[in-house]
Every structure is written in C-alpha cells, then in structure tokens.
Design brief:
Radius of gyration: 32 Å
Shape: globular
Oligomer: single chain
Helix content: under 10%
Strand content: over 45%
Number of helices: 0
Largest sheet: 5 strands, mixed
Distance between the termini: 45 Å
Structural class: mainly beta
Number of strands: 73
Strand order of the largest sheet: 1-58-57-56-55
C-alpha cells in the first residue's frame, strides 16, 4: 500500500464558498448582435470606461462592448485607414494605429476621433501600447522603427539597428522598457532613450506576434508560424552574473491546434492565447499547455484582454466578440425535489440538463442548469437507481427492485426484465451497449440499445457496485466485501474476460468508480475512508480522507477543474490527481448525499437523499470547465483522426466543455489474406462525425472487425462451380462468420473432393468454413 501525500482544507459555506482561486465559469459566450457583418474584429483593449474596445479591420470602425455584451460601433474618418492596434492612452482616451495612412488616431470614450497624428510616410504602424513614461509606443512595420508619441502629438522614431524586420506587437516589460515581436525571428527590447537589444529565436522562421509580461521576470510570446509559445528571461534587474537562467534565455512550448496570435497573463497567473484555428489556449508557468476549441465553425480568434469583469474577452475575426467569464470563488445552490423526494443518482444529458433518479418516489427527473425540475417518468412500484445516457441518445436506468433495465426517450419508456437480483449502477459501454452491475450478485449485464441481453459472471464477486469505462476500452467495476473477500477492483473486456485487483486496505468495501482526467480509475472505499487510484496496469495508490463525515464514502466523478469530486452522506470532497483533499460541508444536518456528477455549466451537481434536494456547487478552484476525452480502438493500438490529425491510440485530449471536434477512424492496412472493416464508434455515431464535448471524461472506442479472405478454384477450371452462403465464393468475410461452400459439378464431371483448407473427412460437396482460421 502506498500512502499519498495530502493537504486537507475545509471550505465553508456562508452563501458563497471561501474563495481559494479565481476560475473561468460558464464557458465561452459569443456576442454578435450589433456587430457589422464582415467587420473582422482583431485587436482589443480594456477601455477607461469599463468596456472593451476593439478594432474592426474590414469595416474601418472601432467597436465597444460592455460587460453585458452591448456593442456600439464608431467609424474613423479615413476609409483607407488600415486599422491595426488599439490601447488606452495616458490621457484616458483610446489610441489606435492606422497602417494604411501612416497615422496614430485618438478617440474619446464617446466615440469621437479628435486627432490623427502623422508619422513618417510609409511607416505603417501596427502594434501600440501605453508606456510608463506618459507616451504611447508603436511598432512601424514599413520603416523598421519604434515610435513614441505624447498626447500632444510630439513624435520620436527610433530605427532598429538590424535590417529586414517585420514588427508586430509591443508591450511594457518588467522595468519599464518596451519589448516587441519581430516576425523576422527576434524578440527586441528598446529603452525609453532608444537603446536596442536583440534576442534571436532558435527558429528564424517562427514568426513571433503577440507578447506580454509575466509574473516570473520574463516575457511570453506567440510564435505563429512555428506553433509555439515562447518565454524569454529578462532578469530581476540585478548583476547579470547572478541571473539564473541568463538574461535572454528562451524556452519554447509547442501548441497542438496551431497559429497562436495574441497572448496575455490571465487572472490565474497563467498565460492565455488565441489561435486562428479557432482555439483558446492556456500555458502555465511550468509550460503545461491546454487548448480549447470553440464550439462553432469558421472561428479565427485574434485579440485577447482581461475585461472589467476579470473575464477573458476575445475577438473572433469570423464575426464575434467572445467572453470567457471569471469568478472569484465558489457558491452553493440547492433545489427542492418536491415531486421526486429522496433523489438517488444523477448524470448529465446531451440536452444540457441533469437527469436524476428517485427510487423511493418511482421517478426519473430532469433539472436544467437554472434549477427548474420536471418529471420525465413516474410510476408505482418503479424503483429507478442508476442512470446514464446511451449511444442512442435515450436515458437508460436500472430498476433495482423490479429486476429491470430500461430507457426513456422523449415520452416513451421501455423496460426489459433481466436475470440479475439487483440491477444497480449503469454505464454506456465501449461497444455501444449498456453495461450494469448486480448489487447483490456476482454478474455484469450487457444490453444492446435494441434490448438484447447478455450476462457475464464475475468468478469471485458477490456484490458488484460501481462501473465505468476505462481508457483501455474495458469495463472497470468495484466489488464490495463479502465473507473473507475484502473486495477488489475488476476489469472486464467486452468479450467477458475478467481480471481482479485486490484493494490493499482490509474491509475497504470499494464503492463508486470514475475515470479520471489522468487516465487512471479512481474509486471510493466505503468503509475504508480512503480514495483509491488504479492504473490500467493494476497499480493501486490509496489516499486517506481525514475527518470523513461518517466514513461511508460513495459516488465519485471527474470534475470540471481537472480534479475528482466525491461524497459521503454529509459533505462533498475534492481530491486533486496528486492527492490533495478539500472538504465542503453542507448547511444541512445529514443531507444523505448519494450521487454526484459534472454539469455542462462548470458546476458539480449532487443528490441529497435525506434532504430531498438537488445541490449545485460551483468549485472555487482556478481554471475553465474542461473535460478529457480518451480515444481507443478495438483491436487496440490502431489509428484515429481527431480534428484532421492522425493519432495512434490510446490518446487523450483535454478540451473546453462545449467545444466541437471531428473524429473518425483510420482503417488499418491490410495484411496478406486479411483486412479490417470499421464496425462502429462506441457512441453509436457515424464513421466520421462531429462531437460536442460534455462534462466529465469519456472514452470513444473505434471498433474494427477483422475480415479474412476466401479464395476458391475449380480443377480442372471448366469442371464446375462453387457457390457460397453468404456472399460470393471469393471475397472477405468477418472473423468468425461461417461460410457454406457448395461444389456443383458440370455435365461429364463428378465431384471428387476438396483440397487445401477445405479438406475434411468424407469430402461432402457442401461444407461450412470458419473464416477466423
């Protein structure tokens, strides 16, 4: 047994949780109303009036958007202005660059352009920033200069001491100097007196663009052509021989989607950047990159800024202003389930709502993210417990005291009797079917969406509790203590092969199980007061839960923040993948927590059996609502395509909840006498399809069937013919498919027998072959 390190914290509710970190909430929100069609928003800045101001490069306008999303637009005097950059100046006005007219413009917050100051002809100003010296500074793409302009219009221009520059963005560095990106492969520094320093990048063709200071004595920048985020150490201002690493040291981190543009340091101390391929990226100080593809077509994300609400505001030159809201702490809401008391389990549906069961009330209910509850189905003697959405889009449930498994699709309900003593937990399987456990028996059940049932015995199990799909495309489940058996974690392939992994702690009674964002399976130990983690190779780590409410830990789920969340009967807990645990007691006295799941709104939703409520907890941890998607194939190790790129499985991605991605299988190469046929995705969708990411990790399995080639011949060639059922005599057949061959002799010939692989005792004219051999 390995004991994990942990730090235990308690978050208290007093209307709002004690804030621990900031967090992005509610996902990306696009605004289009009031924006001129085809205007192509690009650069953006926070204005002095509490709104964000942005360039509309194609419409030759400057736009303004309030925190509520109200857009106003203001034209500039010159139709050929060629607007590029925008910044709030030292005088409380908006300053912008006109690359087409070699000017710097000034606009008041009521949208009036008061001045347009001329630079050297051909200067083509681009980036602009408010310096610490009471002036605005600009990059001049046409002349290779850095310009400085006071609010009165006094201009200084400093020519770069190197040739062939392609200047883009400019920012203020840690000690007041100006730092800029040079697309010819350099990061440059210029002091307020015009002294330059040049730092060449490792890749001269990287095309650096956006640049921003960080809290780590460094400048962070985007490399558009190289698909990287760069960091350059600029030092603490002390003696150079004491700097570690040396000033000018460059580190680079690869991004996956491509063409990063603008970059800022976010409220969480990490760096957020835009990508023209339609993604928002985040890179931590240690270089960990996460990217979130936006959920609409044609996005080309450009500028990014921290808004007046501390959220991220982004321009999409495809025709949107996008916000990613930020909150300072968590909150708790509770919704009474009047018509469905004693709620049991809960899961997220693809309709953007949460679905729950109430077995005592005989109810399947639905609650939207605003807390409105409706009854999907209710009946006497109906005891729904586990619930999940199937590959057919229906909500599937277990009926534990009527020995049934059923589904609800719209107003229709269908239920199938199953030969299990207590159908309990249920999950959508890697093969498109539903898999469920037996809480008082030693079996797993499998039922197709058409209602075809198969039962798989688990040799040493007496009571099976939770079940989920692992990243390896197998079913993982918990087996509770029975007799001398302290319980174990089980793994079953879709063909029924079982592996058992004993839990190290005696009397642990493993209960809930969930797939974590780290690719491991995490489970609760009901009476062991521990959280377990098991890798797909069977290695188990345990983390003690101090001050557990009553020791009976239950359901567990992956949260929207990259951690795991679980419950006992009194409180909600959070455990990071490194084992740090936080407890969140509820105001109720013994609410009887049962189920917990991630919602599409970046919150945790849970059931309170004793309090007759559904709870919603917004976690006060940093980061956007994200989800992990694992991809596997059957047979394992084959290739899938994700967003147009081929990946060898297993493979995982962390994406923003609600983002859209295209997936498809890559048919494996044929071997002599054998090939593969794609037989379906585990989500039941078409071969190549778009998926919209919901909350919580999911596994997508591309299933292939091996086909074997059958070749026949007649000797002599004109002596007869061979017929096959099914299909033609020669061709490919799915592995395991029996093929009936019948030989017919033509007039003047007599059938003399089979040779080769078809040879057999007696040589009848009709034989059946197994294509798997």
């Amino acid at each position: 047994m390995i004991s994990g390190l942990w730090v235990f914290r308690i978050g208290l509710f007093a209307g709002i949780l004690v804030p621990l970190f900031g967090q992005v909430s509610n996902g990306l929100t696009p605004f289009q109303q009031g924006l001129t069609s085809g205007s192509s928003p690009t650069a953006i800045t926070l204005g002095p009036d509490g709104a964000c101001w942005f360039i509309e490069s194609q419409a030759q306008q400057i736009g303004r958007i309030t925190p509520a999303g109200v857009i106003s637009e203001y034209p500039v005097p010159r139709a050929n202005a060629g607007l590029n950059g925008i910044a709030t100046g030292p005088d409380g006005a908006l300053w912008f660059t006109e690359g087409g007219t070699d000017r710097i413009g000034r606009m008041t917050t009521d949208g009036v352009v008061t001045n347009e100051f001329a630079l050297t002809p051909g200067s083509a100003p681009f980036g602009i920033v408010n310096g610490l010296d009471g002036a605005v500074w600009v990059t001049e793409q046409g002349t290779g200069k850095i310009g400085r302009m006071t609010p009165a219009g006094s201009v200084q221009e400093f020519p770069l001491p190197w040739k062939g520059s392609q200047l883009f963005e400019i920012t203020v560095g840690p000690r007041g100097a100006l730092w800029f990106s040079d697309g010819s492969g350099n990061i440059g520094e210029v002091g307020t007196t015009g002294a330059f320093t040049r730092f060449p990048l490792p890749n001269a063709a990287a095309l650096p663009r956006g640049i921003t200071p960080g809290p780590d004595n460094a400048l962070w920048f985007t490399e558009s052509a190289a698909g990287r985020i760069g960091r350059i150490n600029v030092g603490r201002g002390g003696p150079p021989n004491l700097e570690t690493p040396p000033i000018g040291t460059i580190t680079e981190y690869a991004v996956g989607v491509g063409q990063p543009q603008s970059i800022i340091c976010g409220p969480d101390g990490a760096f957020w950047f835009t990508e023209t391929a339609g993604a928002v990226g985040r890179v931590s100080l240690d270089g960990n990159v996460t990217e979130f593809v936006v959920p609409w077509e044609g996005a080309r994300l450009q500028g990014i800024v921290i808004g007046p609400d501390s959220g991220l505001w982004i321009t999409d030159s495809g025709g949107r202003i996008v916000t990613l809201p930020w909150s300072s702490g968590g909150s708790l809401s509770e919704f009474p389930t009047v018509a469905a008391p004693s709620p049991s389990k809960i899961t997220a549906g693809s309709d953007g709502a949460l679905w729950f069961t109430a077995d005592v009330a005989g109810t399947v209910g639905r609650i939207n993210t605003a807390g409105a509850i409706t009854t999907a189905y209710q009946a006497p003697y109906f005891t729904p417990y586990g619930i999940v959405q199937g590959s057919d889009g229906a909500m599937w449930f277990t009926d534990r005291y009527r020995f049934g498994v059923g589904k609800i699709a719209g107003t229709n309900r269908v239920e199938y009797l199953v030969p299990l003593s207590t159908p309990f937990a249920i999950t959508a399987g890697p093969d498109g079917a539903l898999w469920f456990t037996d809480a008082t028996g030693g079996n797993l059940g499998r039922i197709t969406t058409a209602g075809v049932l198969t039962v798989f015995p688990v040799p040493n199990a007496v009571a099976i509790d939770g079940i989920t799909v692992g990243p390896d495309g197998a079913l993982w489940f918990t087996v509770r203590r029975a007799g001398t058996n302290d319980g174990f974690i089980g793994r079953m392939t879709t063909s029924g092969a079982v592996t058992e992994y004993p839990v190290p702690t005696a009397n642990a009674d493993p209960s809930g199980i969930a797939l974590g964002p780290d690719g491991a399976l995490w489970f609760t130990e009901s009476f062991g007061a521990k959280i377990g983690r098991i890798t797909t190779s069977g290695a188990i780590t345990e983390f003690a839960v101090p001050a557990a409410g009553n020791g009976e830990l239950g359901a567990i789920t992956a949260g929207p923040d990259g951690a795991l969340w679980f419950v006992d009967e009194i409180q909600v807990y959070r455990i990071t993948t490194s084992g740090e645990i936080t407890a969140y007691p509820l105001p109720e006295n013994g609410p009887g927590l049962q189920g917990i799941t991630s919602g599409p709104d970046g919150a945790l939703w849970f059931t309170e059996d004793s309090a007759d409520k559904i709870g919603r907890l917004v976690p006060p941890e940093s980061g956007p609502p994200v989800t992990t998607r694992f991809f596997a194939t059957n047979p394992p190790g084959l290739t899938v395509t994700v967003d147009g790129v081929n990946y060898t499985t297993p493979q995982s991605f962390t994406w923003l909840v609600g983002s859209r991605h295209t997936i498809g299988p890559v048919t494996p190469p044929a071997a002599p006498g054998m090939r593969y046929r794609f037989s379906g995705w585990s989500d039941g969708q078409s071969q190549t399809h778009m998926l919209t990411t919901g909350p919580g990790p999911s596994v997508y399995v591309a299933n292939f069937v091996g086909q074997y080639q059958l070749t026949t011949s007649v000797s002599p060639a004109a002596a007869g013919s061979i017929e096959a059922v099914p299909g033609s005599a020669d061709g490919y057949y799915d592995a395991g498919t029996p093929v009936q061959l019948t030989a017919e002799a033509y007039a003047g010939y007599q059938f003399a027998g089979w040779t080769g692989d078809a040879a057999g005792g007696g040589n009848p004219s009709t034989i059946v072959l197994d294509t798997a051999r």
